[in-house]
Design brief:
265 residues
Length: 265
């Protein structure tokens, strides 16, 4: 029987470019940059910087969280939550823009909002391999699906379209956070993963000449071979005993009866 491939120490991670949430967040980031270039006054540099930074944070934290998933589930969850909060901040900026410029804001049942949701729900997006190997072209193709709104000369249409996309991205991130939380509860974190690998390694390791002698007993707790050890501390310091070769997963021990010294004649 062929040997089983050991589980990887660093768990699968990355692949964020194929996440729909990251694709939509990239769309929001690019178009927020272009929106600010065209529709936010040059003398309001602080607002421009804040909006672009919030959009960038939404995108980049998804990527960083995905990359950190190999060694820290909690960091991944925290960074995805930061991305979610950044996009919520950006959502408020677009709502403020519409309100302060006395422009209409679409409700969720507005005909154009429904059309944008229909694109999200029915459009055939580039494949995972396309997003991985031809990212620029694939992202341009995604942008083209929304170009009638995102490249419109009317800032109200562009702002409302971006609000719709932010709602979509936030929904996707909420679902991702829910999934990550459930996986953490079921599978544990990276530390628990390492402990499991260590326990499996010890349980599957074949005893060697150094680990178990021919006359060594089996562990009374787990049945694994035992080997002779020497106590290093306590009242039995210096005395030999049998210890389980699966230690520290199993802490079974047996006493080795002391050999009586021969009587002098």
């Amino acid at each position: 029987m062929p040997a089983q491939t050991p589980a990887p120490i660093i768990r699968p991670h990355g692949g964020y470019r194929t996440l729909r949430a990251h694709q939509v967040a990239t769309l929001i980031y690019d178009n927020t940059y272009w929106f600010c270039e065209r529709h936010i006054r040059r003398d309001d540099a602080r607002l421009r910087d804040q909006m672009v930074h919030a959009a960038r944070s939404g995108r980049q934290n998804i990527a960083e969280g995905s990359r950190r998933a190999g060694t820290s589930n909690t960091t991944e969850i925290r960074l995805i939550d930061v991305a979610r909060a950044s996009l919520e901040e950006l959502l408020n900026d677009y709502e403020d823009y519409l309100r302060q410029h006395r422009l209409p804001e679409w409700n969720k049942d507005h005909p154009e909002a429904l059309r944008i949701r229909r694109v999200h729900n029915t459009a055939t997006l580039p494949t995972d391999d396309d997003f991985r190997h031809r990212y620029r072209e694939s992202q341009d193709a995604l942008n083209a699906l929304y170009s009638r709104w995102l490249e419109n000369d009317d800032p109200a249409i562009r702002a409302n379209a971006l609000i719709c996309l932010i709602h979509q991205a936030n929904y996707l991130l909420d679902q991702l956070l829910k999934e990550l939380g459930e996986n953490f509860v079921e599978q544990g974190g990276f530390t628990e993963h390492l402990a499991t690998l260590r326990a499996d390694h010890r349980a599957n390791a074949m005893p060697t000449a150094k680990s178990a002698s021919a006359d060594a007993p089996n562990c009374p707790q787990c049945g694994q071979p035992m080997r002779q050890r020497t106590a290093s501390k306590g009242r039995n310091a210096g005395k030999p005993f049998w210890g389980c070769t699966a230690y520290p997963t199993c802490k079974g021990t047996l006493e080795i009866p002391s050999t009586p010294s021969p009587k002098s004649t």
